[in-house]
Amino acid sequence: MEFRIEPTSRQAIYRQLSEQIREAIATGRLAEDERLPSVRELSRTLVVNPNTIARVYTELEREGVLNTRPGLGVFVARLRQELTKKARQQRLIRHVDALLTEAVHLGFAPEDVTGLVAERMNRFRWERGEKRTD
Question: What is the number of other CB atoms lying within 10 angstroms of the CB of residue 5?
């Protein structure tokens, strides 16, 4: 898996990397139990402070996305649904509302948004498991 940092982005480096890891898992480019590069490896590859990489890994581990195995490295965690369905739904609603707010401000019609969401949904794996090859 290859990660990239856009130095001219207004988004913080740790946020860029965190979102790339999350998306790679959601799209199947990173599979359950797959090992990620070490902090040192990734900081060298991306030319980023190792503390930034460690912060990303720690944050994602706290959220249950990654897990650290002492002496072995950092791995994609198995899917856990610790939150109730209602709590997960409320969390998703906040994100959907943010998306819709942005769409309104950008001048999109409702049918444009639903069409785009339907099109983009095909990029994601709805059950975690095998890596996608496309």
Answer: 16
List, for residues 35-60, the tens digit of each pLDDT value.
999 999 999 999 999 999 999 999 99
Alpha carbon distance 128, 134 (integer Å): 16
**Calculated CA dihedral for residues 77, 79, 85, 87, nearest 10 degrees:** 10
Task: Reduce the DSSP state of residue 84 to 3 states and report it.
Answer: coil
User: With left for phi above 0 and alpha for psi between -120 and 50, is residue 75 left, alpha or beta?
Assistant: beta
Q: How far apart, in whole angstroms, are the C-alpha atoms of residue 57 and residue 22?
A: 11
Q: What pTM was estimated for this model as a whole?
A: 0.72
The residue written with tokens 């990654």 in the block is 66
Q: What is the arrangement of strands in the sheet containing 66-69, beginning at the earlier edge strand? A: 35-36, 73-76, 66-69
